[in-house]
Design brief:
Layout lengths: L1 E4 L5 H12 L15 H4 L6 H12 L3 E8 L14 E9 L5 E4 L1 H4 L4 E5 L5 E10 L4 E5 L22 E6 L9 E6 L13
């Protein structure tokens, strides 16, 4: 899943450096890092890297991996054994009592669901609701205590070009709780809902 990162604490400093560099030419030109010696004596502003790390520390405990099993034991398998299919996906806890948002394609046709927390704790899960059009699903686990959770914001405020952080467990269990960064490449591209 992706988390839009809207804080841009380094923007004023970046603008200042760019203006300094544009105003120089020939022998007066200096590297951007040295364009304003006053920056060196002032307290270091929070860098984008600092902000990414701060967000990751807050969000990662709410990110889970979801293991899905589907198909019955021995079904359509003339050689015996188990033809069960297994799938791995990611989700995020959105309520302290255990509601988890994930993708519909992760849980569709699931016979068994298990959710692995950041600390390694595993819970069985049940599907609460799915929506194939938006490719979203909500599943529920039953924790013994409140869980770390993140909240939704207003997607209408997302703008093209904003930083975004993606959290999840891509491809395998060994890559649990990976974080990567990018930008919002476009908004408003959801296809029209088919006529019924």
């Amino acid at each position: 899943f992706m988390l839009v990162f809207t804080d841009e604490p380094s923007a004023p400093t970046t603008t200042r450096i760019v203006k300094q560099v544009k105003g120089t030419s020939g022998a007066d030109a200096r590297p951007a890092a040295a364009a304003d010696s006053g920056l060196r004596s002032s307290p270091r502003p929070a860098t984008l890297s600092d902000q990414f790390r701060s967000v990751a520390e807050r969000v990662t405990p709410a990110v889970v991996s979801i293991r899905v099993r589907s198909g019955a034991e021995g079904e359509n398998n003339p050689l015996g054994g188990s033809p069960r299919r297994q799938n791995l996906g990611s989700g995020v806890i959105v309520s302290p009592d255990g509601h988890v948002v994930t993708n519909n394609h992760v849980v569709e046709d699931a016979d068994q669901l298990s959710v692995r927390m950041y600390d390694g704790t595993t819970y069985n899960a049940e599907i609460v609701g799915t929506d194939a059009f938006s490719d979203l699903a909500v599943i529920k686990i039953e924790p013994s205590e409140d869980l770390p959770a993140i909240s939704f914001s207003d997607s209408e405020q997302v703008k093209t070009g904003q930083w975004v952080l993606a959290f999840g467990s891509p491809l395998s269990q060994e890559l649990n709780n990976s974080v990567t960064a990018g930008i919002v490449s476009a908004v408003g591209r959801l296809q029209q809902q088919p006529q019924r």
